[in-house]
Amino acid sequence: MSPLLELNDLWYTYPHAGPNPVAVLRGVRAEVHEGETLGIVGGNGSGKSTLLKILATLLRPTAGQLRYRGEPIGSVPTAYRAAVNYSAGAPLGFYPRLTAAENLRFFSGLKGTTLTRHGAGGLLDRVGLADQADVLYARFSLGMRQRLHLARLLLEPSALWIVDEPTNGLDADGVRLLQELLGGAPDRATVVVSHDREFLHRIGARILILKEGQVARCASLSS
Amino acid sequence: MVRLLLLARVRQEGTSQFLVRVVPLSLLNVLLLFAVLATADGRGFDLIGFTLQYGYFVPMTALSAAVGTWEVELVAGVAEEFLLRPSRGLWARLLTSPVEALPPFALFAVLILLAPLPCAQRLAHLAMATGMLVVFLLLGTVLGYCFGFRHEKAVNNFLASVTWVLGFGPGPFFGARTSGVARLFPGGFSIEGDFALEWLKLAAVTLLAGGLLWWGSKPRRQRVFTR
Amino acid sequence: MRFTLLLIRVQWIDRRATSSFIIGITLQTALLTLALAHRATGAGPALVLACRAALLTCVTIVLLSAMSSVQNEFRYGTMENVLLGRVPLARLLGLRAASCAVVMSPALCLPFAGAAVAFPSVLGPRTLLLIAMLYLCLAAICYQCTLLLCQFARPSAAVPWFRLALLLVGMSVVPFPRARQVAELLPTGWVIAYAAGTRAVVALPMFLATVSLWTCAVWLAFRKRLRPSIERSLVDGRAAL
Predict the structure, then answer these.
(1) B219 compared with C87, residue with greater pLDDT
(2) Which residue of chain A is at minimal alpha-carbon distance from B226?
(3) What is the ipTM of this complex?
């Protein structure tokens, strides 16, 4: 059975990077299987976020290929994008002058069906923001913003979550909530970038270590 | 979604500020651009000449409004969400931007209806102005989507130049000049009553918008700009 | 002199740093220069068109400069010198206004160059005097608007209205009844009158009179309100008005 997602020899170099461009990603190969969590770790500038953006089809790799359920991803990957949920995380990502509930309603509309006020309230309750439904996003703390990003991930069922540094700014309760959410759907795969190896261990992630744009190691954390 | 987008825009700017910019300031700006060269030699206000310049003013205000509304998305840093699922977001944008382009359009619509022209011509001009409004709103929306997120100054650069780039066609600066390249600008044919070719041009602009949408929806070579 | 040159350099760098501004101004100046050469029927009308074109572009630059004038002085640390009594505020703002007028030279002079190419008879002492009047007029507007805009909680909201008042009314662009008389309450009205050759004898002295009158009036009315707000800004650390 083919993996959910295959990363075949992915290279990425920034355009207009000067006369001696350095590749941010250098031949990354990996697989993500259904139901598994892949945690990506690495130092600053090792290419983690760039890799996530390529997985989310926000960036086009300079070379290499991405395959979803055995099929290469096309030039306008509408079906793949519909199956993927990407979160770049706080502090940005929502309209600062809309309330939490209004933001969720808008982004649910973007994903297909606009939530009712009641529906948005239910989601906010799940991430511990029920009391802040009518507060403007601009007034949210970093942790509250991160929780709202989690709520947006819950807007639609998806086969793959791609999440960048989700623990940033979260308090202990927030991290516990995140853990529950990430472990709550056995049929969904997750690719998560985090500096917090303890957290990745707790969610049972297989670890991919990126070093200078290359896969230095790929194994379970315990090994 | 349209209501929420509009709400985000109005709250960002403040209701009174928004209303002042969209209604009196935009109308006075249209008046200024028309008259700055036209009345220099002591001539009065040529109302019919002004009316027929809708071919410059309607596309200019539509493009400015449609591209300008993306500023809120730039501030919010929501590029990824729009790029991953563009269709409904772009429809919502397209339906939001008329609010800002409507006052100048309404002014020209009224002037066209009151113009001392045969009824058929008045209707043809009105239909043309409406077509221009819709098509250039579409083009502006797609331009903002394709280029707005690429660079922090993309939207501002566009807004600063659109008035003057379109000015090289027939309009307040070169009058009814319809020779050569000027015909390629909006209103190049309709100002002389040649509507069929103007509609063809609008169809070409619509195709261009479609092409840009397809191109803009592909994974990009460069990261989106985030504040 | 060295300080003025420094201010000119700083403003030039500031303007160049805003790419949208440079793109807009360059396109606007090019378009207006070409358009006036296309529209003018003779040297006289070309001069009026050049005046209007230059004012349309330069008034926008002046107002943007006036809006950021005081904040920039905080940014460069010169305002502290004012508060410590080393430089009089009036002199600092005056030098800023003058350097602002110098910085907008390309936008101011190009329309006249376009007019001269189309109608060589435009070249002459009258045109040079007209350009000098424009420099003085724009520097005065910059100075006055700096003081006026400081009084607003949101100067950016007031700028479009100042611009429209100076252009629509000050150049009698919209020919409503008695538009010319109303325009002549402002220096811009007398610049246009001089360019058009109407009332040429009184235009120059009246221009100088309106410039002096408005500058003195604005300075007297607002100087006392300006200093406390600057000091407040320094004390509460906002460093802006």
Answers:
(1) B219
(2) A92
(3) 0.84
